[in-house]
Write a structure and sequence with these properties.
This protein is an all-alpha fold. The chain is built from eight helices and no strands.
């Protein structure tokens, strides 16, 4: 997921769009669904990862083309989601899943999704694309490691309208308390 944040944070078209936060969140949601669906369908981590990589590149390319072609056009999240789903799932149907695979527990997928929500602060409309990328760079790895511990728990209490600094302080408190 951090790869997606890296590529989208360096996209000038996305950064300059007045719909940047919506574009990032729609992409995140779409990519999360693709990751989960492909993994559940194939039970193959390698295939899932390749599909995820292709999906974020397809998503970003589609969004950039729309922004560049019609800058004043309102962002149509339905159109881009349908396009990316069709592209990824049609190709997946044409391939057979390899026989050697790594199994991930389904509850782990849910935890990864929760970690992403906490670290990237998706409910906070004040964060920019770069803020979210920086938060991921700084905290995602640590939080993934924390959630691998058996005593890990779901975190809550993030204000939807806090500053990036307040959000970072919150994340640091969680890390130091465990």
């Amino acid at each position: 997921m951090q790869e997606y944040m890296k590529y989208i944070s360096i996209s000038d078209a996305v950064k300059q769009s007045k719909y940047a936060n919506q574009i990032v969140q729609t992409g995140w949601s779409t990519l999360s669904h693709i990751f989960n669906i492909v993994y559940i369908q194939t039970r193959n981590l390698e295939t899932t990862y390749r599909s995820f990589q292709k999906a974020y590149l397809v998503y970003l390319e589609y969004v950039e083309q729309i922004i560049c072609a019609i800058p004043s056009h309102k962002f149509d999240s339905n159109g881009v989601v349908i396009f990316v789903y069709n592209k990824i799932f049609n190709e997946l149907d044409k391939k057979s899943a390899p026989t050697n695979f790594v199994v991930i527990r389904d509850d782990l997928l849910l935890q990864i999704s929760r970690i992403s929500s906490v670290v990237y602060g998706w409910s906070n409309p004040l964060f920019t694309v770069n803020d979210r990328y920086d938060l991921g760079e700084k905290y995602l790895h640590s939080f993934l490691l924390l959630f691998c511990k058996p005593e890990s728990r779901v975190f809550s209490g993030i204000s939807e309208n806090c500053s990036t600094q307040e959000h970072e302080a919150y994340l640091n408190r969680i890390i130091s308390s465990l």
